[in-house]
Amino acid sequence: MSSFKSIICGIISATLFGISGILASILFRQAAVAPEWLVGVRMLCAGAVLLCMLTLFTKEAVFSVWQHTYTALLVVLFGLFGVLLAQSSFFLSVYYGDAAIATVLQSLGPAIIVVLMSIYSKRWPSRLEFVAIILALLGVFLLVTNGDITHLKINPKALYWGVISAFGLVGYTLIPKPLLHQTPPLVIVGWGLLIGGLVANLIHPVWRIASGVNLQDIWIVIAIVIFGTLIPYALYVMSLAGLKPSSASLLGTIEPLVATTLSVTLLGTRLRGFQLIGILLILSTILLISLPLKKFLQIE
Q: Pfam families annotated for this entry (predicted)?
C-alpha cells in the first residue's frame, strides 16, 4: 500500500475512533445503558465478526495462536490487560465525564510508555522525552483544575478511569509486540476483542439490556460496533503497512481532536481556557515522543 493510501486509512481510522466516543456519550445521556454492557457488546460482537471474516475470506491461520503456550498466554493477557482494560476504563471515563476528556486522558499512554521503558532499560529519558513527560503532567493539571488548585473542573471518576485507560493503552501497545513477528495483527486484535468481550459478559451479560432502550439506541450500538470498532481497527492495521509506527502515532492525535471538537459543537461541552491549553499540551507530548529528535533540536 502506498504512503498516501496509508495516511488516508490512518486519518479515517482515528476519525472513526473519535466519533465512537461521541456516540457512546450520546447513548449514555439518552438511555440507561451501563458502560460495562456497551463494552461487552462492542468487544464480543466485533471480535466474533472479525475472526469469522478472517476465517472465511482470508488465508490467515486464525487458530495458530493457540498452538503454543507462550503465544496463547500473550493473547489472553492482551485481551484482559490490553483491550478490555483500555476499552472498559475509556467508556467509564466517557460515562462519568465526556468523550473529549476521556480521549485526551487516554492520550497520556505514549508518555507512560516512555517512563516504563526508561525504567525497564535502566536509563534516563532523553531531554525531549523528559520535556514531553513534564508537558503531559502540566497538561493534566490544567485540564483537571483550569489553573485553580482549589477546585476540580471534571468528575474525579472521569479522571480516574481516564488515567486507567491510558495504562490500558500501554498494555494494548506493549503486550502483543512479541506476537507481531509471527501472527497477523488483525488475528491478534480479533482474539483480544473476543476474549475481552467474553470476560466483560461475566460482569454484565449482553442479554441484560436496560429497560427503555429504543430502536434508535440499538442503531447507535450497531454503529459503535461496526464504524467505531471493526472498520477503524482494520483501517489502522492497513495504515501500518505503509507507515512507520511514529507516523501512525502522529495520526492518532486526530482522535482526541475530533472527539473534543464534536463534544463542544454537538454535545455542548464547555472547556475553559486553561483546559484547552492543557489538551494542547497533552497532545503535544505525542508529537514530541513520535517525531525524530534531530528534526526539532540539535541534541546528540
A: EamA (PF00892)
For the record, the C-alpha cell of 5 comes out as: 493510501
CA distance 165 to 161: 6
DSSP calls for 153-198? SS-HHHHHHHHHHHHHHHHHHHTTGGGTTTS-HHHHHHHHHHHHHH
Task: Please enumerate in sequence order all residues whose Cβ is within 8 A of that of 109, keeping only pairs 6 or more positions apart, or say none.
Answer: 166, 167, 169, 170, 173
| Whole-angstrom distance, CA of residue 257 vs CA of residue 78 | 27
State how far Cα 83 lies from the chain centre.
Answer: 9
Q: Residue 92 gets which letter from DSSP?
A: H
Comparison of pLDDT for 147 and 34, the residue scoring more: 34
Q: Pull the grid cell for residue 74.
A: 500473550
Read off the pLDDT of residues 99-151 as tens digits, 9 standing for 90 and up: 888 988 988 888 888 888 888 888 888 888 788 888 888 988 888 888 877 77
pLDDT, one tens digit per residue, over 123-134 is: 888 888 788 888
**String of b and e for 65-103 (b: at least 16 CB within 10 Å)?**
beeeeebeebbbebbbbbbbbbbbbbbbbbbbbbbbbbb
CB atoms within 10 A of CB 216: 11
Cell numbers given for 42: 462492542
Q: Which of 61-65, 163-167, 276-280 has the highest mean pLDDT?
A: 163-167
Q: What Rg, from alpha-carbon coordinates, does the chain have?
A: 19
Question: Could you tell me if 144 and 153 are in contact, meaning their C-beta atoms sit under 8 angstroms apart?
Answer: yes
List all residues 6 or more positions away from 20 whose beta carbon is below 8 Å from its beta carbon: 224, 227, 228, 229, 232
| Distance of alpha carbon 138 from alpha carbon 91, whole angstroms | 24
